[in-house]
Specification:
The protein is an alpha+beta fold. It is built from 3 helices and 5 strands. The structure holds adenosine monophosphate. Adenosine monophosphate binds next to loops.
């Protein structure tokens, strides 16, 4: 999608700090990290949000989250997986993404 920030990251038009890439998914470090480890996992195909995505895509993203969590050692310490959706979810980038947050105690509510 032409004016989608994350599509422009997928195409390479906007640089990102990549941690994983394959033909379906890209994972990169959040530009404004809220934890020592803050990775965004996105599908290369554009979906506005999890409401529009097919279960295969969401399931595949989940498998990459688990793979990265293991590689980063977050399977031992734990982590938070967040999918902000829509207005009340305060989704700011309308391209489906999963936040993987770890490396500190994730107190709730976030602060
Ligand atoms: P959300 O609020 O759930 O839509 O999350 C969007 C996330 O994208 C925020 O955590 C931003 O810090 C992050 N973000 C925005 N622009 C970039 C960028 N160019 N590279 C990496 N992360 C970004």
């Amino acid at each position: 999608m032409e004016n989608c920030l994350f599509c422009r990251i997928v195409s390479g038009e906007i640089p990102s700090n990549k941690v994983y890439e394959d033909d379906k998914v890209l994972a990169f470090r959040d530009i404004s990290p809220q934890a020592p480890e803050h990775i965004l996992v996105i599908p290369k195909q554009h979906f506005d949000s999890i409401l529009d995505a097919d279960p295969q895509t969401v399931g595949y993203m989940q498998s990459i989250v688990v793979k990265l969590a293991r590689e980063l050692g977050l399977d031992e310490s734990g982590f938070r997986l967040v999918v902000n959706t829509g207005f009340d979810g305060m989704q700011s980038v309308m391209h489906l993404h999963m936040h993987v947050l770890g490396g500190r105690l994730m107190l709730w509510p976030p602060g």
